[in-house]
Amino acid sequence: GGAVFIKGTSMWLESAIEQLIPAGDHTIVVLRVTDVRVDSEVAPIVFHRSVFRRLGA
Fold this sequence. Notes:
Helices cover about 0% and strands about 60% of the residues.
């Protein structure tokens, strides 16, 4: 395992696996957030239709 960081994002969540739930041919992973870091100087983004997009004002 390891961390995934996306350069230029406004927020980081550090987490640990809390529970794995079998769901057909998938597994749902429930995470417990252990740390939050925010960079208020960076505008937030959203992941939509397989693309990261900035939120408009």
